[in-house]
Structure formats: structure tokens, C-alpha cells
Specification:
By secondary structure, the protein is α/β, with parallel strands linked by helices. Helices cover 48% and strands 13% of the residues. The chain is built from 9 helices and 7 strands; from the N terminus they run βαβαααβαβαββααβα. It has a 5-stranded parallel β-sheet with strand order 2-3-1-4-7, sandwiched between helices. A hairpin with a 6-residue loop joins strand 5 and strand 6. Bound molecules: BIS(adenosine)-5'-pentaphosphate and zinc ion. Its main location: cytoplasm. Monomer.
Length: 215
């Protein structure tokens, strides 16, 4: 199964994508996580990506598309994958379709996690991230067992650099201008499914499972 997650920053794409990946035993590919891993490792890609991410802008397509395409050609993607944070504009979606077509494949579902902008700021300011293993928490909606410590790997949890309110505002603008048009793109392709992302996490997950089927 090949799935694309759509939704505003903070809609819960990452939260749901991790659960879906586990349930269907497919890799979870988050372009944001790949960039953050590169920033942490101090690679050239990381330095470049950071200059855009810190401003809430998109990393240029010439960097992002090639990186994603290399990743989906890896062996573990043969059985399917879930993309979280890619595509983020029409050219990225078109490149993805083209590459899949070349190997006679296609995206099966685009799941839009729908959350109004008003809820987003609240979610982002409460999010705490583990930059070591990629786990995500929320101080009130999904707190770690021990305050500011990752349940999985015991590293300290932090507020992401791009979760400051002024950067979140910019990310939302970028979302509306560049990413939201993908809803129509996938609707036209007949594979768009929308879930109400304001429900609690388990309900959102149950709604997604009812769309994807229980294995
Ligand atoms: P990326 O890391 O992809 O960030 P994003 O899309 O803005 O999404 P987030 O990770 O912020 O949110 P999410 O929807 O995954 O929400 P989460 O599950 O964490 O990208 C970061 C940057 O990298 C971009 O700005 C860009 O610069 C660059 N980039 C990445 N991909 C790119 C691309 N393809 N092209 C160009 N540039 C790219 O949930 C949020 C919070 O809410 C958490 O605290 C969570 O616990 C909580 N929560 C989740 N679900 C619920 C619920 N149902 N109820 C209550 N709380 C909930
Ligand atoms: Zn961790």
C-alpha cells in the first residue's frame, strides 16, 4: 500500500503516519525527519535545509524531490510506504506520480487530516519532540511518562525551532498557498480521503483504518 498524508503543519500527520506504518508494516518516510536528521548530523544537506526550515519556508524542490525519490527506490519500499510531508506542492506531486508510473505503480490513498488553523497554533506550542528518535508528544494531549523525557529513548524533549508562533504562522501561509492545492489534485485522481483531525488521536486513527481496511 502506498499512502500520502496531507494536512496543515501540526494537523497530526506524523502522529498518524507512525501508527499506520506500524500497523501495515510499511516504512514511514517523513521529509521533515530526514532534514532534521541531517541538521543534527551537520551534513551539507542539513545546513541548506535549516536555512529554509527556520524561516518556515519550503526547502527547494531540486533538493527535496531527488532525496525523496532516492528513498522510495530503497528495498524496504517495495512493499509500500507512507509519505509524511511529501508532496508539499504540485511539482512534487507530479514528480512522484511520474517516478511511480515508470515502475508501473501509483499512490493508493491520499489521506487529508483536516484541522482548522485556530487549533494548529495550540498544538504546535504544546508539541515536544525527541530529536534523537523522532518521537512526538504534546504537553496536554499526549504527555510523556516523565516530564520532557522521551519514553522510548530517554533523551530530552525540546520545542522544535520552527514551532515558535511566528514561524508557525509563516508555515501556515506556505501551507495554504502551496500545499492545499494538493487536495484538489488528489480529489481529481479519485484517491482523496478526508478525516476529521480535531478528534482525539485514537479516533482519528480508527477513521483512517476504516478507510485503508483492516489489513
Ligand atoms: P515537517 O516536519 O513535515 O513539518 P509539518 O508538515 O509542518 O508537520 P509537523 O511535523 O509540524 O506536524 P504533523 O502534522 O506531523 O503533526 P504531529 O503529528 O507532530 O516539515 C518541517 C519543515 O521541513 C517544513 O516547514 C519545510 O521547511 C521542510 N520540508 C519538509 N518536507 C518538505 C518538502 N516535501 N518540501 C519542501 N520542504 C519540506 O502533531 C502536532 C502536535 O499535535 C503534536 O504535539 C501531537 O502530539 C499533537 N496531536 C496530534 N494529533 C492530535 C490529536 N488528534 N489531538 C490532539 N493533539 C494531537
Ligand atoms: Zn526518543
Amino acid at each position: 500500500m502506498k499512502i500520502v498524508m496531507l494536512g496543515a503543519p501540526g494537523a497530526g500527520k506524523g502522529t498518524q503516519a507512525k501508527k499506520i506504518a506500524e500497523k501495515y508494516s510499511i516504512p514511514h518516510i517523513s521529509t521533515g525527519d530526514i532534514f532534521r536528521a541531517n541538521i543534527k548530523a551537520g551534513t551539507q544537506l542539513g545546513v541548506k535545509a535549516r536555512s529554509y526550515m527556520d524561516k518556515g519556508e519550503l526547502v527547494p524542490d531540486e533538493v527535496t524531490i531527488g532525496m525523496l525519490i532516492d528513498r522510495i527506490h530503497e528495498q524496504d519500499c517495495k512493499k509500500g510506504f507512507i509519505l509524511d510531508g511529501f508532496p508539499r506542492n504540485i511539482p512534487q506531486a507530479e514528480s512522484l506520480d511520474k517516478v511511480l508510473k515508470e515502475i508501473s505503480e501509483k499512490i493508493d490513498f491520499a489521506i487529508d487530516v483536516d484541522v482548522p488553523d485556530e487549533n494548529i497554533i495550540k498544538r504546535m506550542s504544546g508539541r515536544r519532540a525527541c530529536l534523537n528518535c523522532g518521537a512526538t508528544y504534546h504537553v496536554s494531549f499526549n504527555p510523556p511518562k516523565k516530564e520532557d523525557i522521551c519514553d522510548g529513548c530517554s533523551h530530552e524533549l525540546v520545542l522544535r525551532d520552527d514551532d515558535k508562533p511566528e514561524t508557525v504562522k509563516k508555515r501556515l501561509e506556505v501551507y495554504h498557498e502551496h500545499t492545499k492545492p494538493l487536495i484538489d489534485y488528489y480529489k481529481k485522481a479519485g484517491i482523496l480521503r478526508t478525516v476529521d483531525g480535531t478528534k482525539d488521536m485514537d479516533k482519528v486513527f480508527a477513521d483512517i483504518i476504516s478507510i485503508l481496511g483492516d489489513k
